[in-house]
Design goal:
The chain is an alpha+beta fold. The protein has one domain. It is built from five helices and two strands; from the N terminus they run H-H-H-H-E-E-H. A two-stranded antiparallel sheet has the order 1-2. Strand 1 (99-108) and strand 2 form a beta hairpin. It is globular and about 50 Å long. The N and C termini lie far apart (51 Å).
Length: 159
């Protein structure tokens, strides 16, 4: 035990160091600082949707399943941000008729057990499209998503 004249371990730190150590981080779960411009969060959601659209189409071409476990690491590589279930839920909230999510069981090769996962697909035919015959349904879905995102941003400026 230390004598009463010596300082406890914590007091050896300078006051500014102690204050910095005991302050909670001012970072939200989405990685943005508290008080930062809310348009940044909406911009990130737009990038997430564009990347999700591209990845699902790529996985369909490759013949791989578009499960959350397959999508999440690739999304992180494209956007340089962590992609979570919360982000997927936000995208689904903005475009519920297009983003289809089903719970599936996938066999884990390491443990030989069945693990739950989410199968994510985009139903581009869910939105009526007055497009030209040669136009892509995916480009129309992206335009609709970005329009809804802008409407949501205008309705909730202090997100």
């Amino acid at each position: 035990m230390e004598s009463s004249g010596s300082l406890p371990f914590d007091s050896r730190l300078q006051k500014s160091d102690r204050d910095r150590c005991h302050q909670p981080d001012k970072v939200r779960s989405d990685g943005n600082e508290v008080g930062s411009d809310p348009s940044v969060a909406f911009e990130i959601l737009g990038k997430f949707f564009d990347s999700l659209d591209s990845l699902i189409r790529l996985l369909q071409v490759k013949g791989s399943g578009s499960t959350f476990a397959n999508i999440s690491p690739k999304m992180e590589g494209l956007t340089d941000r962590r992609f979570s279930y919360g982000h997927l839920a936000q995208l689904k909230f903005l475009l519920p008729e297009v983003i289809e999510i089903k719970k599936i069981l996938v066999r884990d090769e390491k443990t030989s057990c069945m693990t739950p996962d989410l199968h994510v697909t985009l139903n581009v035919d869910a939105i009526k499209n007055e497009r030209k015959p040669n136009a892509s349904g995916n480009s129309h879905v992206r335009k609709v998503f970005h329009a809804r995102l802008l409407d949501f941003f205008k309705a909730h400026p202090k997100f």
